Amino acid sequence: MQISMKCSVAVHCLIFIYEARGTAKVTSSLLAESTGCNPVVIRNIMSALKKAGLITIPRGTGGAELCADPAQITLYQIYAALEPDGIASLIGIHPCQGRACPVAQNIRKVLQSPYHQIEDAVRQTMEGITLQSMIDEFQGIIHLQEADTTSQSRAEQQM
Known about the structure:
mainly alpha, two-stranded antiparallel sheet, 6 helices, 3% strand, extended
């Protein structure tokens, strides 16, 4: 099971947009540089996020902005904007129903209920994670890194 890398790139972009608010015009070129992705990939992701109503992008000049408070944007909304088949695409069932084997003929029915339970659990977990919680995590990491750098500088000065 794997959630597409588009989701992590989208979260990267959304956190970048949030952090850059009021200080920089966020363009696909800037996001491509930050993520290491091709600008075309970034534009496709941004288009999907815009279509889902998570961001706005003024025509021509760029400058993406969030459309909602980060506490109101869930990881599931971000994922669903990028993956049209949604959670159901995380777990697949191999095609084998045309075979004479009774297991092959019925495996889809056997797996349907447990797979739906897994999909529901993944969806609920993703709905409980907000962009704000991921921003808070990012900012906490940055704060710790800055504190470590400050401590190292003080220690070097005392030597």
